[in-house]
Write a structure and sequence with these properties.
The chain is α+β, with helices and mostly antiparallel strands. Helix content is 30%, strand content 30%. Strands 1, 2, 3, 4, 5, 6, 7, 8, 9 and 10 form a ten-stranded antiparallel sheet that branches. The chain binds flavin mononucleotide.
């Protein structure tokens, strides 16, 4: 019997029972039941990028699955927030790089409001990194290089359909994906004209180290000029 409201079940209907089961499951989830690394903000480097590179390497070494997956938050033209997961393509002196279609929902949002926030969560170590700042668009050559530096599957995905547009049916998706795979395999230099490299230029970068006794450490870097940063601790 499904969780239909109004189906009586010994004083509790199925919807109530399903809700209770969900809450029990939710409350029984542990957080950070592993050994967490220590973090001394006093030894942190003067700029956030070397610390991000170090934490990323440590996340990989600790076995964190998909540490390059991050949330990207944007706002639409009416200032309503939106969020989704993307892959990080680089982090260098220009900023944090990702790629997507300029015609997707996020592409339109970034065209209207070129600011974003990124979030990384690496639970194996109880770590979070947040990045906020203005977003710039890479050149066409950079976007094309991004498209062709990755796998046939990634190229096929970029060639499939109009991201964030309405899809008639899953059959339509399968047809388009098969055609895109064939094209990507036969034509590895094929272009996806809307595929675009974006860069979040960091105005603020925050490093959060979780602590089993809840004495979490938060270190925020704020850009004060080109290449200069203020470091400050935040209450958890
Ligand atoms: C782990 C993971 C990685 C993803 N990486 C990308 C990516 O690098 N680029 C992209 O356009 N979409 C990626 N997606 C899909 C996006 O989350 C999203 O569904 C899509 O980009 C449409 O978003 P939008 O409608 O807000 O524009 C990824 C999804 C997941 C779950």
């Amino acid at each position: 019997m499904g969780a239909r409201a109004g189906v009586w079940n010994g004083g509790m209907n199925d919807a109530d029972a399903a809700q209770r089961a969900f809450r029990d499951l939710l409350r029984s989830r542990p957080v950070w039941d592993t050994e967490l690394p220590s973090f001394d903000p006093a030894t942190a480097p003067p700029a956030p990028l070397p610390l991000f590179h170090a934490w990323f390497a440590e996340a990989v070494a600790a076995g964190q699955p998909e540490p390059h997956a991050m949330t990207l938050a944007t706002v639409d033209a009416a200032d309503r927030p939106d969020v989704r997961t993307l892959l990080l393509h680089d982090a260098d002196g220009r900023g944090w790089h990702f790629a997507t279609h300029s015609t997707s929902a996020k592409g339109h949002q970034l065209a209207a409001r070129p600011h974003a926030a990124l979030g990384f969560y690496w639970p194996v170590q109880g770590r979070q990194v947040r990045v906020r700042g203005p977003v710039t668009t890479g050149t066409r050559a950079e976007s094309s290089a991004d498209l062709h530096a990755r796998s046939t599957g990634a190229l096929a995905a970029a060639l499939t359909g109009a991201q964030s547009g309405l899809l008639e049916s899953t059959a339509e998706l399968h047809r388009a994906a098969d055609a895109a795979w064939e094209r990507a395999a036969a034509e590895p230099d094929a272009e996806a004209p809307t595929w675009t490299r974006y860069v979040v230029e960091p105005a603020e970068v925050e490093f959060f180290q979780g602590d089993a006794r809840r004495r979490h450490l938060r270190l925020r870097y704020r850009a004060t000029g080109p290449g200069t940063w203020t470091r400050e601790l935040l209450w958890p």
